[in-house]
Amino acid sequence: MTFNALLRAITNPFNPKKSCTFIIITMNRRFITLICLISIILSLPVSAQKPELKFQKLSLKDGLSQSTVYSILQDSRGLMWFGTQDGLNKYDGYQFTVYRHDPSNAHSLSHNEIFALYEDNTGTLWIGTSNGLNRFDRQQERFIHYQNDPNNPNSLSHNTVLSIFEDDKAVLWVGTKGGGLNQFDRKRNQFVSFRHNPNNPNSLSNDIVWPIYQDKQGTLWIGTDGSGLNQFDRQRKTFTHYLPDAQNPDSLSNVIASLYEDKTGQLWLGTLGGLYQFDRQQKTFVHYAHDPQNPDSLSDDSIWAIGEDGMGILWIATDGGGLNQFDRQQNQFLHFQHEPQNPASLSNDALLSIYKDTVGTMWVGTSGGGVNQFNREQQKFVHYFHDPKNPNSLNNNTILSIETDQKGHLWVGTQGGGLNQFDQARQKVTHYLHDPENPNSLSHNDVSAIAEESSGKLWVGTYGGGLNQFNPQNHQFVSYLHDPDKPTSLISDYVLSIYEDSTQTLWIGTREGLDQFDRKTQRFLHYTHDPDNANSLSYNDISVIYEDGQGTLWLGTQGGGLNRFDRKQFVRYQADAQNPNSLSHNEISALYADEAGTLWIGTYGGGLNQFDRATGRFKVYREKQGLANDVIYGILGDNQGNLWLSSNKGLSKFNPKTQAFRHYDVLDGLQSNEFNAVAHKSHNGELFFGGINGFNAFYPEHVKDNPSIPPIVITDFKIFNKSVALGSYSPLQQHISETHEIALSYKQSFFSFEFAALNFLQPSKNEYAYKLEGLDEDWNEIGTQRRANYTNVPHGTYQFHVKGSNNDKV
After folding, report:
1. What is the mean predicted confidence (pLDDT) over 780-785?
2. How far apart, in whole angstroms, are the C-alpha atoms of residue 194 and residue 207?
3. Are 290 and 297 within 8 A, CB to CB?
4. CATH topology for 2-43+709-805?
5. How confident is the model over 542-577, as pLDDT tens digits?
6. By 3-state DSSP, what share of the chain in percent is helix, strand and coil, each rounded to 5?
């Protein structure tokens, strides 16, 4: 069988926006020919609370060869590369391919310690190691070595390669540890070295060269370990030195570990003495250093890497102080560090490298903690949670209720943590707790319901401590408790819901029935279930109260179904196993009426119900209709007509017009996949959903899909379920991703392809479809699987297509 793989970019006729790979297969009686066209197509279907970053991690358990990561690179094909203390790693979003030195293989990596990675303008990958410079031959999966030869003055000047850089003239520069700077002539395979000469003030200031960087003006800068910064004049072959000044504590440090020019043209230097902003016109430096007395200063002075994300935010990687976000307007640093109690925090505070990939994801290499990645641009939901180190955070993560008042304050009720008030900027949190010694304190720390009435008064319901009215002037609470000797007192101290209707009547749902509160008389009127009265409340456990646009009051119960209340009598809607058009479940968790007047009902186990008032029928949506989970905790509508549903399997967006569901989970930034029956929409359209690990807040219009279309690569080719190795007598003469032609005999008609969409944002959600044109009539939709298998393929000519999408099905 012959397999011809031709690399080219083509348009997918089935979906012009999907990444796609095509393989043409030709067969006859004696042999089979496969022609592979691997292509990238365009789309398939009082300390401020700092911005939250959720770090995803890659470690040894994921296949990373070693946990100290010196260098990071994304190549032109979209693959990620990591240079570690023990091996070179190639990563496709699913698995690592590790390259190590093999003493018995002259074409293996020359050394396992990788300090530098660089891809030049031709797509060639260069690797700097502790034993020379390596060039990677992608076709043959082998390495060509460039090492120091004492007998050859044109060889590499030193075998420890710390940095690699190609300038705008396509000249490759190599920085070494002790051999100075090398200029590589690739045509002649020769190196020209520039070294420190104590007798020449215009020579390189030090032979240990760390970063090499060319700014937008074309100037080449070289940082050294011990003698500051060098500006290189390539025409004159001379160096201008910027050295420490013993008389000036803010002068440049002598160890330059990183160089970076930001989008505005500012040149930044990371040193072992802090961060420097370099004014190249005035030849002056602005120094930023760690100040133990200033929490907004740099967290640590040892800076190994500097990066900038797609939003123009500067990130500084420190060795010991974690990651710093620099606010250039305020000259303040926000610190992101390892927090043992937070699995989404940095894995380690000793950072060595930082890199931005093509979609804006920032990759951070650590010393001992593997790789961390984050993408603020794709962070869909804000997560508020308890942070023991931050007094201005929630004091408890189990959320029972949420409300926003007319002044813009956010109120959050917790289980055991009382009431939390966020100010308008959400930078300061005030905690209100029950104090047995203070009768004017909150009556109970389980805050199960919160509602602001039209006059601005705040009502707080507790689970066991009755009802509270909060006075914002004196920060005191007035409690309303059940008194068995007073029939007009609150019917139960277990309050589940509070609602003020359009007539300013206050309703309280409890475990023992519904109460209507008369503010003038301070009395409660009770509505309870009467077994002998079919027009009474169906059940006393009132979980939710809701008034629709027509002024009808709807009551959801925890066992008695749904009640419609016209202020005189109740009409019941309950589950009937014999009636498919009845309510699906009698435990009601959420109610919402959309702009069209349709009532939506969430249930504990019966999914989502849509109520047709004209017919009295319910349409049910369950998991088999697309719901993520049949337990619906909360329902909110956005300004685009979508419904947002919280459940035990994350958060879902439902479009009633198209009947389409879009699901989000903890990987998208949710507090957990498990929520509680807590949902609130503020006056400005912000949505809140509470759960077991804090709460999420977001504006629906800001929740956007990842727009980046991932390239597709074929990662493996197997015959009879065994990977085909390269070799003289092998069907593969080159790596499958680089192959142009393969010859297979008719006996090798059992074969498979493995592939990957190079999207690294939640790659487990990438989806695929493939088709062998000439054999398959339709596409094989395989979801998140990444393998196409074929058996007993008859002779002939075929074309293999594979297409993939990113985590948001783009």
Report:
1. 96
2. 8
3. yes
4. Immunoglobulin-like (2.60.40)
5. 999 999 999 999 999 999 999 999 999 999 999 999
6. 5, 45, 50
